[in-house]
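User: Please fill in residues for this 355-position structure.
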């Protein structure tokens, strides 16, 4: 099973390989293959008729595409994290705002902390000294804002992983400066192949990294694998809108807008909230909950754009590299995507069965 790489329709098609990366086909959807640049959207291919050599070539191409994507992600964050930290601080995620409230510039850090708190509350993570998390993994940790916050809040050990060496180094330096050595640590590692044993963490945290994952099934599988029995998994991520029962895919205009955003931010195909829920259900995870928080994050991108247009923002951007500039130029597309109801800011949480 898998989801169509372009229209994201969930497909229980013929799985051609068991290994990484998965290649899925069905009669009417192109799953993951598109990402390897091999086929176009919704062009029919007959499943399971692909010969051995061609199949191997597809797998090699898909692996090369993943590697290219991940190099792009690492370079984007290597290049842009310093500027982000200068202007916005150590949390590289949306803030949570009261809908319709007047948002002053100084409220944003508070809104980002509130995002963490609201997410923990949504997932019913306990503050109780006997039940609070003791071991946490921060999957796609940026420069470690969430890791340090969670480690302090729960007096827990927190391990963060990122693809960006610059981020891992900076996260570690901030931890040292804040007296958290031994409590939090960071390394460069792939969320799709985490360097942790099964069942290690009682809180698995992924704040705005899921959208970068080219293989959502593998991503969620890894989150579930490293979660301890009874552990909580929290995924906060960008999704596209759910499709209606009569729809096979997003509209061509919607797809075109998402493609531009993907290009700017090194994102592969998107999932909808419904896609995530089906995936979690297929793994027998429990207490699955999801919500669309788009209305609570609406002020975020306009505020980022305003900060980019200040003298400090402009001079920083001019000193940055092309990937950062490209990301900045794409910011209005995010606003457009939210306004059109195409982009959804999602929280999806669940628990690994206790045994
Ligand atoms: N969660 C952080 C950072 C969000 S930015 C915060 O809220 O501040 C997205 C992060 O996801 C970056 O750190 C990027 O390196 C990471 N990421 C993307 N794909 C990844 C992958 N395959 N493995 C590990 N980290 C990944």
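Assistant: Residues filled in for all 355 positions:
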């Amino acid at each position: 099973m898998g989801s169509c790489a372009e229209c994201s329709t969930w497909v229980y098609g013929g799985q051609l390989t068991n290994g990484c990366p998965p290649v899925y086909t069905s009669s009417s959807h192109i799953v993951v293959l598109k990402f390897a640049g091999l086929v176009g959207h919704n062009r029919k291919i007959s499943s399971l008729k692909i010969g051995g050599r061609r199949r191997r070539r597809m797998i090699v191409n898909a692996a090369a595409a993943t590697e290219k994507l991940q190099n792009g992600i690492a370079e984007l964050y290597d290049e842009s994290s310093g500027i982000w930290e200068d202007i916005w601080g150590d949390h590289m995620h949306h803030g949570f705002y009261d809908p319709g409230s007047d948002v002053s510039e100084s409220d944003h850090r508070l809104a980002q902390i509130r995002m963490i708190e609201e997410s923990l509350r949504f997932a019913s993570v306990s503050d109780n000294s006997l039940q609070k998390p003791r071991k946490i993994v921060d999957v796609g940790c940026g420069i470690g804002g969430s890791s340090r916050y969670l480690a302090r809040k729960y007096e827990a050990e927190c391990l963060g992983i990122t693809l960006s060496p610059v981020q891992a180094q900076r996260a570690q330096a901030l931890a040292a400066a804040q007296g958290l050595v031994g409590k939090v640590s960071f390394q460069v590692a792939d969320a799709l192949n985490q360097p942790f044993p099964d069942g290690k963490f009682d809180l698995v945290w992924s704040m705005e990294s899921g959208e970068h994952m080219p293989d959502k099934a593998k991503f969620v599988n890894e989150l579930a694998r490293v979660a301890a029995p009874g552990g909580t998994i929290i995924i906060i991520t960008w999704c596209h809108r759910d499709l209606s029962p009569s729809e096979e895919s997003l509209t061509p205009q919607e797809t075109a807008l998402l493609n531009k955003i993907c290009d700017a931010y090194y994102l592969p195909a998107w999932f909808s909230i419904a896609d995530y829920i089906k995936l979690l259900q297929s793994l027998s995870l429990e207490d699955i909950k999801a919500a669309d928080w788009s209305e609570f994050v609406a002020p975020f991108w306009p505020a980022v754009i305003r900060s980019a247009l200040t003298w400090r923002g402009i001079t920083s951007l001019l000193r940055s590299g092309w990937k950062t500039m490209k990301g900045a130029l794409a910011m209005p597309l995010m606003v457009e995507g939210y306004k059109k109801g195409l982009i959804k800011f999602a929280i999806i949480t669940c628990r690994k069965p206790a045994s």
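For context: The longest strand covers residues 227-240.
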